[in-house]
Amino acid sequence: MKILIIVPAFNEEASLPGVLRDLREQMPSADVLVVNDGSEDSTSRTARDRGVKVVDLPFNLGIGGAVQTGYLYAAHQGYDVAVQFDGDGQHLGTEIEKLLKPLEEGVADIVIGSRFLVPGAYKAPLFRTLGIWIFSVVLSRILSTAVTDSTSGFRAANRKAIEFFAGMYPDDYPEVEALVLSHKAELRMTEVAVAMRERTGGKSSITPVRSVYYMTKVLMAIFIDLLKKVR
Amino acid sequence: MDLLKILAIIGSGALLVVVIELIRRGRLKERYSLLWLLAGAVLLVLSASRGVLEYVSRMVGIFYPPSFLFLIAFLFLLLITMHFSVVLSSLSERTKKLAQELALVREELRNIKKSGLDNGK
After folding, report:
1. Could you tell me which of B104, B110, B103 has the C-alpha nearest to residue A59?
2. Mutual orientation of helices B30-48 and B65-120 as an angle, nearest 10°?
3. Cβ <8 Å between A73 and B104
4. Looking at this predicted complex, what is its ipTM?
5. Rounded to a whole number, what is the distance in Å from the CA of B86 to chain A's nearest CA?
6. Regions of chain A short of the pLDDT cut 50
7. A214-218, B9-13, B24-28: lowest mean pLDDT where?
8. Distance between CA atoms of B14 and A41, rounded to whole angstroms?
9. In this predicted structure, what is the pLDDT of residue A199?
């Protein structure tokens, strides 16, 4: 099985060495592709010096466009499985095997690594918890399957899903929206429990003040996605 | 002839002249000028001929004809901005695709160059 680990990275020169070391130790047989999303620091050099594949986007496309670039690469190069793995050090190489299992067994096309399947394992601020709860209620209803961690960017996709995402991937709130589009494309999804590191460096883009605004926009995006025609 | 009518004729006439001049100089593509031309022409006809304006406004139940003129102008603007949104969406999608293809092709080129050098040794 040819596995590609897609690492979207925007100004991640500080965390990238650790992430790449983790991946090399835990997943030595997989190929690693760093998608440098128009970084202004030496993200690209840092990755190249460590011998992984790198594609440099000419300007910042945002996480959706960067991840899709990875899927395009996987589709062109004939990979069987693609794993999305954040460049900020949030995800753990040891957990990747858990994502691959449902794909190997052929019971899902997309596997989402969830922080919340083990209760109490992950502490988030109150507002965030509320938002995540609302998303999971709405999405579980729409997708007719339980989704506890819809904003998780730790995912694995089989060949069918790779080809779908290469052709169509959302830009605005890609993690959540990709689930809705996948559902419309009749891809099978499942969640597995994974551990994640609490953020060390950097700040979450979702501050408590903005979270209500953010939630409204994501919910609207979800309903707009429901209108979309899926190829 | 009242002042309003004169102003309306000057306004819509100027719009037509500007649009045509922009097309002539190649600053406005035909594809994006059609709606503007149509808007200019319709507004000119409506402001020049009191009879037509009064007839159509009465038909739709508007008793103050100049406000029908505003309505038409407003509808055209709505149409034109919506056209812009559609064009903008397709342009941003294309820009994204170009950026992605460029990044992938560049990486492929880099690999080809590298393997070419290795073989040359």
Report:
1. B103
2. 170
3. yes
4. 0.87
5. 15
6. none
7. A214-218
8. 51
9. 64
Does residue B23 or residue A126 have the better pLDDT? B23
pLDDT of res. B31: 84
Confidence (pLDDT) at A184: 94
For chain A, say whether B106 makes contact (Cβ under 8 Å).
yes
Q: CB distance B100–A65 less than 8 Å?
A: yes
Helix axes B30-48, B50-59, angle to 10 degrees: 100
- Reported as a single tens digit per residue, the pLDDT across A78-126 is 999 999 999 999 999 999 999 999 999 999 999 999 988 876 666 666 7
Instruction: Measure CB to CB from residue B99 to each of A61, A73, A171 and give the nearest one.
Output: A61
For A2, A25, A115, A172, A195, the CA distances from A29, given in Å and listed in that order, are: 9, 10, 26, 33, 22
What whole-number distance in Å separates Cα of residue A135 and Cα of residue A151?
9
Give per-residue pLDDT as tens, B77-103.
Answer: 999 999 999 999 999 999 999 999 999
DSSP codes joined into one string, chain B: --HHHHHHHHHHHHHHHHHHHHHHTTSS-HHHHHHHHHHHHHHHHHHH-HHHHHHHHHHTT-SSHHHHHHHHHHHHHHHHHHHHHHHHHHHHHHHHHHHHHHHHHHHHHHHHHHHHHHHH-
Cβ neighbours of residue B19 closer than 8 Å, sequence gap 6 or more = B28, B33, B36, B37, B40
Orientation angle between helical segments A126-143 and A208-227, nearest 10 degrees: 10
CA distance A37 to A70: 11
